[in-house]
């Protein structure tokens, strides 16, 4: 993994409001390359990965002329921030109340 990506992941993990992150491949099906946080382990992690992949594909499919650079989805308890790239999807789950 590139050093710049390693630094970014380390910085994200150190922030107190971050509950975890997932680095996903862009292929079909989306696969987990790396993750942190208990919330992204096992079956729950695979569900999040699949959901994030579907969200990104759906949004990008609806915007033919613009590339999506960043998405922010807020629920009652958490916020998911997604940064799609040509090769990867980076998703960060954080607690906005922290």
UniProtKB/TrEMBL annotation:
Q: Where are the transmembrane segments?
A: none
- UniProt xrefs under SUPFAM superfamilies: Roadblock/LC7 domain
Q: Where is the Roadblock/LAMTOR2 domain?
A: 5-94
Query: Record's InterPro entries?
Result: Roadblock/LAMTOR2_dom (IPR004942)
Give the superkingdom in one word. Answer: Eukaryota
Q: Which family does it belong to?
A: Belongs to the GAMAD family.
UniProt-listed PANTHER family: DYNEIN LIGHT CHAIN ROADBLOCK
Please identify the protein, giving its name as recorded. Roadblock/LAMTOR2 domain-containing protein
The opening ranks of the lineage are:
Eukaryota, Fungi, Dikarya, Basidiomycota, Agaricomycotina
